[in-house]
Amino acid sequence: MTTTHPDLVHLLRGPALESFHRGALAIVDAGGAVWRSAGDIDRPVFPRSACKVLQALPLVASGAAEAFGLTDAELALACASHSGEPAHVATAAGVLAKAGVDMQALECGTHWPRDEAVLRALARSGNAASALHNNCSGKHAGFVCVGCLMARAAGREPAEFTRGYLRPDHPVMREVTAALAATTGVDLGQAPMGTDGCGIPTFGVPLRALALAFARVASGQGLSAEHARAAQRLRQAVAASPFHVAGTGRFDTRVMQRLGERVFCKVGAEGVYCAALPGQGLGVAIKLDDGNTARAAEVVMAAVIERLVQLDDDERAFIAALADAPQRNWAGTEVGRLRASDTLRSLLA
Amino acid sequence: MTTTHPDLVHLLRGPALESFHRGALAIVDAGGAVWRSAGDIDRPVFPRSACKVLQALPLVASGAAEAFGLTDAELALACASHSGEPAHVATAAGVLAKAGVDMQALECGTHWPRDEAVLRALARSGNAASALHNNCSGKHAGFVCVGCLMARAAGREPAEFTRGYLRPDHPVMREVTAALAATTGVDLGQAPMGTDGCGIPTFGVPLRALALAFARVASGQGLSAEHARAAQRLRQAVAASPFHVAGTGRFDTRVMQRLGERVFCKVGAEGVYCAALPGQGLGVAIKLDDGNTARAAEVVMAAVIERLVQLDDDERAFIAALADAPQRNWAGTEVGRLRASDTLRSLLA
Lengths: 349, 349
What we know:
The structure is a homodimer. By secondary structure, chain A is an alpha+beta fold. Chain A contains 15 helices and 12 strands. Chain A has helices at about 50-55, 55-60, 65, 70-80, 85-100, 115-125, 135-155, 160, 170-185, 205-220, 225-240, 250-260, 295-310, 315-325, 340-349, and strands at about 5-15, 15-30, 35-40, 45, 195, 200-205, 205, 265, 270-275, 280-290, 325-330, 335-340. In chain A, strands 1, 2, 3, 8, 9, 10, 11 and 12 form an 8-stranded antiparallel sheet that branches. A two-stranded antiparallel sheet of chain A has the order 4-7. Chain A has a two-stranded antiparallel ribbon with strand order 5-6. The longest helix of chain A has 18 residues, at about 135-155.
């Protein structure tokens, strides 16, 4: 149940190892061949927000994105764990307006932005957080669009096809779950099932299968024609508008602003991270045992990108600094380093 | 370097283990006998803020607390990692005023409160964070008091004995380090040394020695008369004013508001937690490998308290709920549990 996974990330304070993070990693091609792996990649893992691009496939494949004229930014937001900055909130509201509904249609719940600067700005403005600020509001707006298109096709009111879309047996959620099953190749009926932070069902999927799904997103191989087209459209949208998939200063935004379509990477809660590397035809899936995403999984992803993606010298320096970074205290003094472990480096060699 | 420690805390989503936390634990009496341990308790660990009570011993032992007439709340704040709530900020400012200086004397740096509600309230007020909001401002105000007393005794200006107090060779910091060495029994000259988040030196100390120091704080045994008196005074002050050692809704505040002098527990960064249990004459030191304090180390501490401290039924239910707690998503739906692992329960049996 608690396999001993390799130590992938080290935090040093002065000369000493202060903390470290263990985890598993799968890097797989679209044929399912494993390029590298670490730890147990067959144990089911909840993919959390790292699989949002898979959950957004029906938005494009159904024709809803086209029917409602969604832009790159709006499609990127459908794949996003955004920071709740004003531009994210406005974009989410815009998607709902195009589909003819408002934020009452969202069932994801409300939370305040987690980025400190964004939270401070919102509090200072005197406004409160709404469901539009939820980091998943773009994904949920996408679900609502699919429901609205179903309603239009049936000649019914939108609410008849959007209300209750969180339920596993709702027609929209059935499409979303089917996309996850098709891309990962996993029989989700047999998988552990839980409820995600935003209320939708989440299924335990082996890292191997999750990496396979991202290799398929990277290459189109092994996907239906509709899903292959949708995956390409979503990757292009995120590359064109990386701010909308995360936010100011965030890892995914910074990496994709810099590397464009060479990397599609996506953060998830609880130490999960996935990426599609189209140039290599590879998919990447990471899970840190302890659930540390922001500090640990990002470092692993940076080390993977540094090893695999074609980079010029400046780009290499940019990525290397994300895989091995000085740590500063409140007064700005350098007190240590956060970095990919030698174990991880050897494993990727 | 990265020993495999037992899994102490489990996070379940639905029926499945989503994440888990490994770590080490020492529970020791004032004679150094180990009541229970888990993992490697001889590897040096930076105690971080968990050892603030040890670092505050000179404030009382030097006579500065008495000379400046510090109250229970002010002494509790000297042992605190506080939330930066208005009452914490005012108390820190009050300590400095009693010593005849102002917040310019603080060298701990500035950070915004980390508690979301406190941060929102401060941002909404239109004010900015200052060094007084730093969670360590009370400890630093205590250091400044020691320097001010030294200055008074020497007939000099306060600044001559307070400026640069962060430096390892400053007379104030030498007292603080000597207290850590005396209570833990560790030769800190041979210990790994780093810089803490608030700028002072921090030393790697085995969990066994850290637990011993807290057993000594619990019982007074093995301490100098001045340190024994100071430890008792500080424990009483925190028990009388537990709000000032942490803040609204925080673990240490809630536990000590409820259990009074039966427990002195103190959070530290990077998954460190310490406690003195006077009724049992035991000291507790915990370090989670992955550095997760708020989620993981608190659960371990709750399980230790539940096992060791004499509690009535209501108190037992209160503590049990901290060692095994439902987890809810943004919409308030129960999605899993965070709890002490069976491994930890067996180990404490």
